[in-house]
Amino acid sequence: MVKNGLAATVLLLAALSASINVWSHGGRLNSEGCHNDKKAGAVHCHRSSTKSKDSNASTSYNRDNWKFRSSASPVSSSVSGWYTGISGSATDVDHVVALKDAYLSGGQGWSSAQKRAFANDSFNHVASVPYVNRTLKNAYAPLKFITKMRSSHYAFANGKCAEYVDLYVRVKQKYGLSFTNNNINAAKSACH
């Protein structure tokens, strides 16, 4: 009887330890069901809204593949945030069209040289207050960024909201990127 109980316990422990890898992990997800996987250096997704062949596009995006050199940007030494006009001790070099946005709207097929050229094109760079860049704007489409900015304690400097949307459109046009999931007219309206 003890021998059977011991065998059952060993089997139960083996089954539990084998299933640990299938348990989910904690962490906040963005609106696409993804988050940064810092160990793998990529974006990791848990759910997909479509079942197309492109549904795994966000899982293979890797910022490191774009070889961005912020120190080479002409705006890297700026202490004034372009979106807000706020001066501070440091700013981020922000991509008006985020690298992930470019990847998802046509850049996934680009060569390494094309990705590097896009990432380091100063036409797509503005200086940004770190919180505005990393939290409010991130890789969001213009309308979502504008909405988040308007509901925060930050505000666009005079005329910068409309100027941002116009620059966003010009950058996407320059690189032949799609406007899928970009409601540009609503973004322009949200600026007023």
Give, in spatial order, the strands making up the sheet with the most strands. Answer: 1-2
What structural class is derived from the secondary structure elements?
A: mainly alpha
Strand content: 5-15%
Which regions are unreliable across 5 or more consecutive residues at pLDDT < 50? 15-25, 46-58
Question: What is the end-to-end distance?
Answer: 78 Å
What are the key terms here?
192 residues; mainly alpha; two-stranded antiparallel sheet; 37% helix; 8% strand; globular
Topology:
Layout: H1 2-19, E1 34-37, E2 42-45, E3 92-95, H2 99-104, H3 112-119, E4 125-128, H4 130-137, H5 142-150, H6 160-174, H7 184-190
Antiparallel strand pairs: 1-2, 3-4
Write a brief structural summary.
The chain has 192 residues and is mainly α. It has one domain. The strands form 2 sheets. It has a two-stranded antiparallel ribbon with strand order 1-2.
Molecular structure report:
With about 190 residues, the chain is mainly alpha-helical. The protein has one domain (about 35-45, about 55-190). Helices cover about 35% and strands about 10% of the residues. The protein has a two-stranded antiparallel ribbon. A two-stranded antiparallel sheet has the order 3-4. A hairpin with a 4-residue loop joins β1 (about 35) and β2 (about 40-45). It is globular. The N and C termini lie far apart (about 80 Å). Mean pLDDT is about 80; it is low at about 15-25 and about 45-60.
